Amino acid sequence: MLSFRFTKFCAFAKTTAASTAFLSSGNSFYGSENSRNSYKKEQREYQQQKRSGKTHYKKWARYGNSATAGTTVFALSWMTTIKDVLGIEKVELDTDPLKEKVKQSWLFRKRRQYDDAIQVLQLALEEAEERKEELPITRVYDEMANTYYEKMNLEEADKYFRIVIQRLVQLHGKKDFDPEFIGVSLKLADILAHKGELESAESGFKHCVRRQMKVMEEHMRKFSVAHGALVEDRHTADTYGHVYTDPIALFGMTLEAYANFLINYCEDNRLSEAEEYIDEVLKISYQIYGSSSAHTINMLNNFGATLVLKNRFELAQKYLSIGVDRILYVNECASMIPGYYCNYAEALFHTGQKDKALEYARKAVQLSRSGDERLRQYTQQFLKDLEKDLNRGKSKSWWIF
Predict the structure, then answer these.
(1) Neighbouring C-beta atoms of residue 369, cutoff 10 Å
(2) What GO cellular component entries does it have (predicted)?
């Protein structure tokens, strides 16, 4: 059974005015017209440094035009790495005309055809409102919010997630410790972070971790009492399925989201804290899915890519090395092996293991031959740039023929 050592977190994660406001339905966290998300800020800094010739982003030529461009190739959203237990409870629509609209919008979203998904959802929302059925209406709003969120239209995503929160509380009787509420709150906190409202965002992440931790304590106590103090079911996850694993998975998701926030937006003095949280996420993933599962590999890849992009190369190498061999035995991860190897090669290069970095970059090119054209082009360019950087560091021979 898991051990959760977060007394340190409990000590400082007290309820603040900011966390209370985060959960309100007001506009206090929409930001001013002058606010910008962190991506745009990084791009402005990059362009200024580039013009002055002092850019420290030069090393990221292998990652495209910006330090964040590579994430589209290597990493999924952190929301995908732990089992999806979020969202409004699925409505049974087997004989309902809304079924095809909701299903079609979901498929459009998975294909990143966001405008098409939004058009279908607008029709579904009109139909649901005409029937005045509150649960399907909330479900459509939730889909709308997630579509805008994945599209990175943060203003619209913020608006619709707040509508969902309000409906969850007022119409569906949900509390701030229910999984639906936690799921939406994590995404709202992420939106605040992108907008640069870091204090409010951290309050939101802390709230989610704190509330889910309390749920976990009660959850684990129930299973301990059920079996007796001296008896432990060694296969609890298999015996009880999602009833047992869902609250644990959601706790892992909150920790992973908070760890990524600390890496992306906080100073180096928070690095050990992020490492502690992600280590606990690994334990959770091992228990629920196994050490060589797609969930575990995705989590390692995402966190490793984030660390690489933030120049935390030694820590990136630590986590990426855990899955670099395991990924070969996970069928669901076959298509992401070249990207994983590129991440690992970048971490190796910056920690002085340049020959090994070149080895994995070449493996990435070889394995990408069976992938799509975009991936093949990327890995080939990555290898080319890596070789260029390696050759640049070698002293030239004085022999002239």
Answers:
(1) 11
(2) mitochondrial inner membrane
